[in-house]
Amino acid sequence: MWVEILCGLIIYRLVRCFFYDDDLLDLETSDSKALFSVADRLEKLYGGKAYLGLRLPDADTATKQNIDMVLVTKGEAVVVSVKNLSGFVLVNPNGSWVCENKHKTEHHPDPVEEAKKQALVLESYLEQRGVILPEGYLSCKVILPNPKCCTLQPNTFPSEVITHDQWTQLKPEPKSMFSGWIKGAFRGGKKEMQESIEQKLNFVLSTAPMWDRLELRGNKYILGEFLEFKGKQEDLQALRNVKRSKVGRLIIQKTSMLGLAHSTLQVLYSPRDYRGEGASASEWKEVVVRSSTEVLFQPENSTKVREFKLSSVVSMSLSA
């Protein structure tokens, strides 16, 4: 019996070594997973398009302002801050939050004020690119999606906060519940104006600075900065053109097994299109590299550089 258990543990470790990355397992509870999960649900509930991981210039601080998400739907845009907190959350009189769990106590500046500041930065950036939003078009929300997040006094939270209980019960609003500006626009025969703003907004956000995005097998995503590839010299030479100045996206197409130690990957990459129109199928380039090739990627809000096997990558998007 003990021999069977020992053999089982050895097999498990071998399978985990060859087919799983520790980094992939760590991402199961990451903030990136929560962010993408919220974006997916919001798009399903309200339609429209969610833009994640924006990094917009902030004139007041001369730095980049990180924005979790901007949701663009018909007639409105919402800056969404996702707080993946776990534990008991309390609101202080000054608006700051305290999150207590069995491991530690965390203090957070007022998330609603932070979201409002992000909305101002977004408005300024849009104006610089020629998009003037009508009054009331842009709003902000703070979402607490973690089921382990408890709010003992939900009434103390501002109206901009969506607690976990509210998040689980969230339903799409009836299509007749437009904002006051949209009602006026339709009555005034300005539907074309609204559609024009939405079109411009989507174009600007799709070409705005943002974090690089790594999609891993098992529907896992991570935002951060792509640094370089690591591997055999001939593989690095084949991937020499995959740099952010030239490439916007790459996809791992398929794997050819020529023995476990010599398996190869087909990598497709598209030339960067600064018009934001995307590359056609005929423009995709192809290279073949060893599956042992790695991607060096630094996650957002982390000082640690992680190495992901290219065989565990589904796609990678690079910001201009």
UniProtKB/TrEMBL annotation:
A Pfam family: NERD
Keywords: Signal
Signal peptide residues on this chain, from the entry's feature table: 1-17
PROSITE patterns with a match to the protein in the record: NERD (PS50965)
Domain NERD residue range list: 30-145
PANTHER family: SI:ZFOS-911D5.4
Protein name as catalogued: NERD domain-containing protein
Source organism of this protein record: Morus notabilis
